[in-house]
Each structure stands twice: as C-alpha cells, then as structure tokens.
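CATEGORY: protein folding

GOAL: derive structure tokens
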Amino acid sequence: MRHHNSVFHSLSKLIPWAVFERLVDEYGTDFRVRKLSTKQQFLSLLFGQLAGTESLRDIEGAFASHAARLYHVGAAPVTRSTLADANKTRSPEVFAGMFAYLAGKAQATLARQAGEAVRLIDSTGLRLSALSSDWAAFSAHANGVKLHTVYDPDAGCPLYAAITPARVNDITPAKEMPIDPMATYVFDLGYYDYAWWAKLDAAGCRIVTRFKSNTRLTVTAENAVPEGSNILSDCIGLLPHRLAFSRKNPFADPVREIRVKIETGAILRILSNDLDAPAQEIADLYKRRWQIELFFRWIKQTLKIKHFLGRNENAVRIQIAVALIAYLLLRMAHSTQKNVESALAFARLIRTNLMHRRPIDGLATPRPPPIACPNQITFKFEPC
C-alpha cells in the first residue's frame, strides 16, 4: 500500500521553514528556551486553529493522543501550562512576519488575472473578556480588538493585517499600511481622511469610497447617465476647500460623485478620483466590498477566531496571526486539488482528517474498506 503523510504533515510542508527559522533568530525567541521551541509552539497553535479546538487543554489532549504521528511534523506533545507561558511571553513578531511572507507567496500563487490590482480595506471587531481590560478596554462594560486588513479579492487572501485595541480609529493603522502604486483602493467611511486620500492619489492609486452625508461637492461638470441602470447621477466637482478649524484641505484635485440606487432602495453617494472610467465600473468596484466581509465571517466561524485561548495581549496577537496563516495554508492547499470546489467544504474535510494519513487531493474520495484477513473467523447465526 502506498504511504501517505498525515494531512497536518502535508499542510506543514507548505510552510517555508527556512524563513521561519530566520525570523526566530532575528527576534531571539528561542534564546535560553529549554522546554518549548517557537516551532513547536507554532505547530501546536496551528493544529488548534485547523482542528477547531476551544482550549489549550484540548490541544494538549489531541497532541497526546497523536504522539506517534508528531515526530515527522517536527512537533511533540505539549503541556497546557508551558504553552500558556509561551503565548504570554514570546514575541508575536515571528508569527506576524511569517504571515506577511506567506501572504506575498499566496498572492502570487492564487492570483488568476493580471488586470489592475484591487485592494479592499476594512476592519472587524473581536470581543474579549473582562480579563483583557488592562489593554483592550473599549468602554466600562466592553473589551475588544480590531483586525485591520488589506484584502486582495482576486487572489482571495489578505495581504496585510494589523491588530489594535477596539478604541483605535480605523484611519490610524491605515496610515501605516504599505501602499501599492497604481492599485485601486476600495474602503468605507471609517477611512474618511483627505490627507490620506491625497497620499493615495499622489501614488497613482484609484480611490473608491463613499461620501459622508454632510460633505458638499461643488459641481463643475455632469456626465450622461446610461438609461435603465441604477446610476442616478454622475458629476465631477471639488471637495470643500477648508476643513474644521480653518485648515486647508490637502486633497484639492477634482473628484467624482456617482449616486447609485441599491437593491434595498437606499441611495449611495460613491466618491472616486477616477474621472474617466464608466460609472457602472466604479459602482461595481464599491460593491466588491462584500468580499472582505465574507472573509471576516469565514475566519470567525471556520477558524473559531472569536474564541481566544489566552487573554493577554501577546496571546491574542499570536493567535490571530496563526489563524491568518492557517487561512492562507488552507487556500493554498485548496488550489492544489480539483475534487472539492467549495473552500468551506475543503476546510471541513481538513478538520475531519487532520491527523489521518490521506492525500490532500483525495479527501473527498471514500476510504477503501479494510482488507479481510484470510484466517479471520466469522460467525454465522441461524434462526432456531
């Protein structure tokens, strides 16, 4: 019979371990470590995300039951207390760096079209318990963090992620995000900042967002609207020259306002610095924002990112980074097979067969029945 690695082993082969070891050396996370290396910590948490475990005790028990199959993966049984200590004290930068490297690799692997790059920007909130109030307090009765993400809808993967306490405004980490020149950036009202828009515009980027209800546009030209479409108006104009406290608006270039009526009957005022593209193209770009919402729902429900294994800041940051790495590995593994079309169904098959010795491209194929032994004794019962 042909030998197969466990599914978990096959997934771990997608990880560039040379890069991981370089990050470990760079941040010194294995310096004077005797019990649990950074690699073993990472594999333990990665297993927990892929298997959907809900506690460190679950990871401890699962690794103990599969101890015989951990050697070839580079893992070993782990105790709950040792893993908790590592999550509390070890720098999350190794895992964040690993995510950043894999994100670039996944984008190159998964991107299917060579057209204009589209970047969706948004954030999602993650609730934390009162035990995290010392660093993630949002109000007197709520604690949480935000996951700020730049998402490539064509490749179906995140390119950048930042984690902040929930009280931090969305535009603050957005100003630190790397900018891809000439790309199209689509975002919502949380990123309403004229200075940041001017920075994107100077890099040759196309901006697609929404007007605030109280923003007035000084119209300088009107474009024709196609008949029978949901486009109500299309005009070009200038944003207010002055901001609050008599500050000059740093984004003085003409912009475009496209009024669109959506399925619910609501009317959206879409803003763009692209004065030439068809209005329907701009409206369709803004509609693509739903893809990043689906991504947030996917990682919350499938990878159980809403349930945290630790409450301190280090543990939360590490778990989110490992969850994003798990997502990228699932997307990359899914692209290597053709039997399972649905990414969600594929993730469920991975979870079910995680420690079974099966090929990743054969998870949807029923397992063959066991071969009967020729000396097997069978019992036949006849009615009296």
